[in-house]
């Protein structure tokens, strides 16, 4: 009998193939990450916008009941003055001058870092919306 050895071929990836795959994943991640952060920042910004509009409504109700606006956010039913949103991304305070008010939301923590173009959002008694950048209320 003749003893023939079969050559075994190992199945798997070479180091070069693995390095190419890691490089491709790294490039894709570097493209996707900034877009992801932008989407997260816009989602967090919507919380600040929503809370400003809710507090503006409460401020109008307070005016109907007391014939004056308040700078004390706790009188509007918030747990603290200034009011910190549930996620902690915005601090909201009121400025009252005569019979007008402005509610201002200021970005905090990671929101201030990730959304630096929209650090403040505000709404007035007339419903005018303002921000540090023109597209913050979009």
From TrEMBL:
The keyword Nucleotidyltransferase does not apply. The chain crosses the membrane at residues 12-36. GO terms for cellular component: type II protein secretion system complex. Keywords: Membrane, Methylation, Transmembrane, Transmembrane helix. One of its GO terms (biological process) is type IV pilus assembly. This is Prepilin-type N-terminal cleavage/methylation domain-containing protein. The lineage of its organism: Bacteria, Pseudomonadati, Pseudomonadota, Gammaproteobacteria, Alteromonadales.
